[in-house]
Write a structure and sequence with these properties.
The structure holds two protein chains of two kinds. Chain A is an alpha/beta fold. Chain A has 15 helices and ten strands. The chains are: A alpha/beta, B alpha/beta.
Chain lengths: ~350, ~210
């Protein structure tokens, strides 16, 4: 069973030979490869080379190809800035007022912004390691978070509670969703084995489970169903503590969830870990970046013990690893899967 | 007679028009500006507590802070006239490399809601800029915010720089990925899991009743 088989079997709910491991490592990988982040984010040959180097070094099963959380909003016209060689940030809204929503157009993934960088990097990876390693192509922000970036985060959050029935709000979410779906399809066509999305602004660290149910969940479920019709599995990543919406996750059509380390693993496994695949949820900073290889392995061992039974588990950090993460700690995380994760 | 309990309720509910008109009414009736301010800080105190308890979320907190901010525009000249001062000064910013300001803005709002003068250094603030601001403004508390797991290590660098400068200012950290263990590990004086707790924490430092 090669790495790709291991991951894809897990996503189908089959029991692989051992727990597969994925790395959310674009920042340390760029640093280790000596590639400035600004180049990683704009030059697909560099993006792919960074991940290929990390794959050769660590031997993980699943490569997560991700630019940053501004790719789609930028492609739809929101201004972007970045700290010195850091990931991007959306510096302002794409529309000044909610009523301007009709000026927004869905993206053309082959042309707009840096989406072509993402797609070309996936094509390169698929040529180099396709069929051997699972390629997870990240399609950036889902409708809710993308709409928040396009409208301006604080204004969007205020809109949700002060004018939830405004038709312009629904149109904003719809155009964001249309763009987002197009990126998933393009990512898959470029050679990703499965796709993923981020929607952290829709989580309980920001909005209520009721707001999540009305304004975020319907877009997730539509996406999962539309992609499943073409045989594509997708993964939903929401940062922070998602305990309050685990019961909603359990009602989703079959998909994968990447849970951040603040979500209690035992509760997550019992509520959603049967019909859905769980990725995560080792603490990226306190454990992987700032502790020792021994402590990383102990954390992984405990998590594997909790999440391995019944399969449906891919070991990863709960969120992105900091650039400064020591390579011996990353190696300890990867090695834990083979050390503690065998199913036979 | 203007009802200050109604003012508290209006701020809590994020009803900015009612909050503003009740403030105008109270001032016209000669209610002491300090009492009006207290009615609003009390509202923000309960908003913070309800947020910490998971009863309300960021949007509800935003509209409450917006209601107080608008009512404060009416109240401020009278506060100045009556010589009412903020209870303390705090400095806040997101650490170098982190451009995400929503959490920092919420904490700044809640601190202002507790009548604390907030020097907001903005985003992507270098350790040296924090050191300079502490020297200049002599705050009681410095708040360091990081939304990204990837920028958390910069909190330690900033705390080390503040301590190396000889400052004994209280340093509190917060942000979605932060844990109390991490705060302890990098020798922060305090950790707030959310903006509501950040307001309670600063009141503890100041020994100000909630």
């Amino acid at each position: 069973m090669n790495s790709r088989d291991r991951v894809m079997a897990t996503l189908r709910g089959e029991i692989p030979d051992r727990v597969p491991v994925c790395l959310h490592n674009f920042l340390p990988a760029a640093r280790e490869a000596g590639v400035p982040l600004g180049r990683y984010l704009t030059d697909p040959a560099a993006t792919a080379a960074v991940h290929l180097q990390a794959l050769r070094k660590y031997g993980h099963d699943c490569v997560l190809l991700d630019l940053d959380t501004t790719t789609l909003a930028e492609a739809m016209g929101a201004p972007r800035d970045s700290a010195a060689d850091g990931p991007g940030h959306i510096a302002g809204p794409a529309i000044a007022n909610l009523d301007d929503v009709d000026s927004l157009r869905p993206v053309d993934p082959q042309r707009d912004g840096r989406i072509p960088v993402l797609l070309e990097a996936i094509r390169i990876l698929a040529r180099e390691v396709g069929g051997e390693v699972a390629i997870r192509g990240n399609a950036d922000q889902s409708a809710f978070s993308l709409a928040a970036l396009l409208r301006g985060m604080q204004d969007f959050l205020v809109d949700l509670v002060t004018e939830p029935d405004n038709p312009a709000l629904a149109r904003l979410l719809e155009v964001a969703h249309e763009s987002h779906v197009a990126v998933h399809r393009a990512v898959r066509e470029a050679g990703a084995d499965f796709t993923s999305l981020g929607d952290s602004l829709s989580g309980p660290d920001v909005v209520s489970p009721t707001v999540f149910r009305r304004f975020a969940r319907p877009y997730h479920e539509r996406l999962i169903r539309d992609l499943a019709a073409d045989g594509t599995t997708t993964l939903i990543h929401i940062c922070g503590d998602t305990s309050q919406i685990l019961d909603q996750f359990a009602e989703y059509p079959s998909c994968a969830f990447e849970l951040d380390y603040k979500t209690d693993p035992l509760r997550a496994k019992s509520v959603v870990g049967r019909g859905h695949t769980l990725f995560g949820n080792v603490d990226p900073s306190s454990v992987v970046a700032l502790s020792t290889p021994g402590h990383v392995q102990e954390s992984c061992r405990q998590l594997i013990e909790a999440w391995k039974p019944g399969g449906r588990f891919v070991l990863n950090s709960g969120c992105a690893l900091p650039a400064s993460t020591p390579s011996e700690n990353i190696q300890a995380l990867v090695d834990s899967a083979a050390l503690f994760g065998r199913y036979d | 007679m203007a009802d200050l309990e109604q003012l508290t309720a209006a701020v809590e509910a994020g009803n900015r028009k009612t909050a503003t008109s009740l403030t105008t009414e109270a001032l016209a009736e000669g209610v002491a500006p300090q009492a009006i301010l207290d009615a609003m800080t009390s509202a923000m105190g309960s908003v913070g507590a309800r947020f910490s308890a998971g009863d309300i979320f960021v949007p509800e907190m935003l509209i409450a802070a917006r209601a107080m901010k608008e009512a404060m525009l009416v109240l401020e000249p009278s506060l100045v006239g009556a010589g009412v001062q903020p209870v303390a000064t705090a400095v806040i910013g997101t650490v170098e490399g982190d451009l995400h300001d929503i959490g920092k803005n919420l904490v700044a709002m809640m601190w202002k809601g507790a009548n604390i003068a907030v020097v907001d250094l903005g985003v992507n603030v270098s350790p040296q800029a924090f050191v300079d601001a502490v020297t200049e403004h002599k705050p009681v508390v410095v708040g360091l915010s990081a939304l990204l797991t990837t920028t958390m290590p910069m909190m330690k660098t900033t705390i080390d720089a503040l301590r190396a400068s000889g400052s004994s200012v209280k340093i509190v950290i917060g942000g979605a990925p932060i844990t109390p263990e991490y705060a302890e590990q990098i020798h922060a004086d305090g950790y707030a899991p959310d903006a509501g707790s950040a307001a309670a924490l600063i009141r503890d430092f100041l020994e100000v009743p909630a």
